[in-house]
UniProtKB/TrEMBL annotation:
PROSITE patterns: ABC_TRANSPORTER_1, ABC_TRANSPORTER_2. The lineage of its organism: Bacteria, Bacillati, Actinomycetota, Actinomycetes, Micrococcales. It holds the Pfam family ABC_tran. The keyword ATP-binding applies. This is Branched-chain amino acid transport system ATP-binding protein. Residues 24-255 form the ABC transporter domain. Keywords: Amino-acid transport, ATP-binding, Coiled coil, Nucleotide-binding, Transport. GO terms for molecular function: ATP binding. Residues 257-300 form a coiled coil. It comes from the Bacteria.
Length: 300
């Protein structure tokens, strides 16, 4: 891994993440579904502790393949993946879950005939003893899932099912959660809610890697983004930097912005939107804290 050292003597990784904060590091991955056909062609990714990292890029760039490779579902031919310094390259999905990696696939991510609570139990099948504590954590984060614990997941709306799927992956207390296109197929309002929930999960201390088709929204909520192109990490930067980068705009964000001024203007609008989402997350957290306080007062 290439590193630089700051004037203060701190070691920084290639993407500018302080070495001591590095949680997950995929280094130069070459991977694919069929022998001899590589989809990832030397792709690298770094995630710091507590970061929400978004992955965008054109269709077929290999975004979902990268997540699947991180979760042991696609064979890694060369390169390494480390989590908190531990080599997890080539581990199987169940071993990765036990090591703190959670994954929410794009489709078929809940058991539709099971209730919400039963779905959560499935989430802890590797460690049933932690069910009660984790289910309580989920209730704090998404109280509606406790209210609707007896409802069958298949009877819920797309956005709600996405929430169930995320919660199920959180049941094993992952240090990093991989989300494959969580907003796919949802209406704009439900998409907003899903991004908000992703931010709430992140605020609760879980690092997140999110692949998204909805590039603009993704860059608004993430701390840092990667643009993938032809199986490689083409660009990285903060969400704001990427939204304002003329190259990224013309190639991947699909606006008609012809010059940097126009790009900067649209970045300002995007920044305001990001602040709105951030404020909504804060308000939600505050409301929950107040509700908890009121509950405690009532109990005592
Ligand atoms: N199960 C599979 N078997 C063989 N090839 C696959 C499989 N899944 C994906 N591919 C191929 O891998 C390439 C990258 O696909 P991937 O789904 O990772 O791209 P993506 O960037 O997520 O695209 P999109 O935004 O369209 O979902 C594509 O050429 C695709 O056809």
């Amino acid at each position: 891994m290439s590193t630089t050292t700051t004037d203060a003597g701190e070691k920084m990784s290639a993407a500018g993440v302080p070495q001591k904060d590095l949680l997950l590091h995929a280094d130069n991955l070459v991977a694919g579904y069929i022998p001899g056909v590589n989809i990832l062609e030397g792709c690298s990714l770094e995630v710091a502790q507590g970061e929400l990292v978004g992955i965008i890029g054109p269709n077929g760039a290999g975004k979902s393949t990268l997540l699947k490779a991180l979760f042991g579902l696609v064979k890694i031919h060369s390169g390494t993946v480390t989590l908190q310094g531990k080599d997890i390259t080539g581990m199987k999905a169940n071993q990765l879950v036990a090591n703190g990696v959670g994954f929410v696939p794009q489709n078929n991510n809940v058991f539709p005939s099971l209730t919400v609570e039963e779905n959560m139990r499935m989430g802890t099948y590797l460690k049933p003893k932690i069910f009660t504590e984790r289910w309580s954590f989920i209730g704090d984060l998404f109280p509606v899932l406790h209210d609707r614990r007896s409802q069958r997941a298949g009877a819920m709306s797309g956005g709600e099912r996405q929430m169930v799927a995320m919660a199920r992956a959180l049941m094993m207390n992952p240090s990093v959660l991989l989300l494959d296109e969580p907003s796919a197929g949802l209406s704009p309002v439900r998409q907003d809610e899903t991004f908000l929930r992703t931010r709430m999960i992140n605020k609760a201390g879980v690092s997140v890697i999110m692949v998204e088709q909805n590039a603009r929204r993704c860059l608004q909520v993430c701390d840092r983004g990667y643009v993938l192109d032809q199986g490689k990490d083409a660009y990285t930067g903060t969400g704001r930097e990427l939204q304002a980068d003329p190259k990224v705009i013309s190639l991947y964000l699909g606006t008609l912005a012809e010059d940097v001024d126009e790009a900067a203007q649209s970045a300002e609008v995007e920044a305001a939107e990001a602040e709105r989402i951030e404020a909504a997350v804060e308000a939600e957290a505050e409301a929950q804290a107040l509700a908890e306080e009121a509950d405690k007062k009532e109990e005592s």
